[in-house]
Amino acid sequence: MAVILQVDFPYAGPFDQRMTEQLSALAASINDEPGMVWKVWTVNEQTQEAGGVYLFDHQANAEAYLAMHTARLQQMGVQGITGKVFHINEALTAINHGPVKPA
């Protein structure tokens, strides 16, 4: 069953085009993670936060990615990382046009 993974952490930048330029290779590599269907990158320059909302095909893949990603961020000196896995109410999500079905 597909699940949503939400990850948030403090982020001091860069933002906008510089963020895109610096993180494009990382973004491309995320497509190769087992079970990852899509990611929406989140960023708030005013509150100095970033992260993402992901759709994974199964909870085990989301949890494995969260563990790897948390370790990667910590190696980069990031603290205060939060990660949560959510099950999806597909019937209600469909009413609101949510793209939650893995391909």
Question: Shape, please?
Answer: globular
Quaternary structure annotation: single chain
- Percent range for β-strand residues: 25-35%
Report the uncertain regions. none
CATH architecture verdict: 2-Layer Sandwich
> Averaged pLDDT, please?
94
Helix content: 25-40%
The number of distinct helices, counting runs of at least 4 residues, comes to 3
The ordered H/E elements are EHEEHEH
The CATH class, by name, is Alpha Beta
- Give the strand order of the largest sheet, numbering strands 1, 2, ... along the chain: 2-3-1-4
What is the domain total for the residues?
A: 1
The radius of gyration is 14 Å
Q: Could you describe the largest sheet, including whether it forms a barrel?
A: 4 strands, antiparallel
CATH topology: Alpha-Beta Plaits
Brief description of this entry?
Pfam families: ydhR (PF08803). This protein has helices at 16-30, 59-75, 90-95; strands spanning 3-10, 36-44, 49-56, 82-87.
